[in-house]
């Protein structure tokens, strides 16, 4: 097999890239280890920045999104039993964020790719990348017991944090920057209408909690738990009682409860590799960087990376110039580090780190008080949350 761009991974980064390349008239083959059912049902992100939403709509894959999404004009920060609204409309000149599940975005992109009859290889085994410094790099894999190879001009490593692309780069090329947090998020999906119209970020002495949603009937709720927590120690009753404690406010607000139909624990990490390129391979999304989910930036960063990558490939195939490809890593990293800073800041402000440290708790409460009372501080939060400009 031969193509122009070989894409490893059919997550948001890989599928959005394949879609953008197609619109530029550039051929690609996407190689993914999992099944269609798996990638279309994997529960991950839910919050899309306006830039991400606009890109999906403008490129023709936002029709169902527009019909089914929930548009939000602010968030609430809750601490000391009181809620404080951050009003995005007023602070950002009318920008919004959108709730639409990541796996719904995946469904829309897979449907568009298959409808156009473009190659999407699923359930590939033993995927590996070769000749990264040669004129024709390749992706090898096993399919139905047979060895296959896709030769290409360039490879896009879009295979997430645990993929094979980044580890295929020789030792000594990449510099890693990392912070691992001593906690994770226990996330649930529950058949219960959202308890608030907008997302509620709760700071509490027992730990952080987030109230978010998927639809008007389904709540998505998260609890800070220790990083090595066993999910079996969290029966449904314990989850609800902990959520009730951490989200309690003075007044008549009530947490809506209902049957829990999905439960998992995700670790929290900040991670970046520099550069996001080696020879003919370019990394995008979680393959190159991870943010803790507190700022809701991971998927949005993945889309921002591949938008830049698609522009760079478009320039190369139209003019033969490699200027944008050479600047790919630098351009992405500028945005990545700002999202890292914001995600780290939100995480640091809202989570309990050391339960015995009274100084840090007072400092966090002072920061929340400042962020919810100073217009300058609220504006900083709002402009980062809705998404910094693309260029
Ligand atoms: P992935 O989604 O990880 O996709 C990589 C793909 O590559 C997968 O399909 C995988 O199966 C495939 N793959 C792996 N190895 C191989 C291989 N060897 N060969 C071929 N294919 C391979 N982000 C937001 O923007 N907003 C949010 O609200 C948000 N909330 C989150 C909540 C939680 C609890 C978590 C865990 C994450 C959240 N994120 C959020 C982050 C977001 O989900 C990720 O950043 C996003 O999935 C990254 O997309 P990606 O395409 O880079 O990687
Ligand atoms: C989600 O809806 O899953 C979500 C929203 C905001 C976050 C993290 C996750 O900060």
Account of the protein in words:
This protein has 391 residues and is of the alpha+beta class. 36% of the residues lie in helices and 27% in strands. The protein has eleven helices and 20 strands. It has helices at 12-23, 36-41, 50-58, 63-68, 88-92, 102-115, 236-247, 298-319, 323-350, 358-371, 375-385; strands at 5-8, 28-31, 47-49, 70-72, 74-79, 82-87, 97-99, 120-121, 125-130, 138-143, 146-151, 154-157, 175-190, 200-202, 209-213, 219-226, 260-274, 277-278, 281-283, 289-290. The strands form four sheets. Strands 6-5-14-15-16-13-17-20 form an eight-stranded mixed β-sheet. α1 (12-23) packs parallel to α6, α1 (12-23) packs parallel to α8 (298-319) and α8 packs antiparallel against α9 (323-350). The protein is globular, with a radius of gyration of 21 Å. The structure holds flavin-adenine dinucleotide and P-hydroxybenzoic acid. The site of flavin-adenine dinucleotide has 36 residues, from α1, β13 and α8.
Question: What's the helix count?
Answer: 11
How many beta-strand elements? Answer: 20
- Indicate the mean pLDDT: 97
Q: Termini, distance in Å? A: 36 Å
Taking Cα atoms only, what radius of gyration do you get, to the nearest Å?
21 Å
Task: Please state roughly what percent of the residues sit in beta strands, choosing from under 5%, 5-15%, 15-25%, 25-35%, 35-45% or over 45%.
Answer: 25-35%
Q: What order do the strands of the largest sheet run in, or round the barrel if closed?
A: 6-5-14-15-16-13-17-20
* SS-based class: alpha+beta
Q: What low-confidence regions span 5 or more consecutive residues with pLDDT below 50?
A: none
Helix content: 25-40%
Bound compounds, please? flavin-adenine dinucleotide, P-hydroxybenzoic acid
Shape: globular
The largest sheet is:
8 strands, mixed
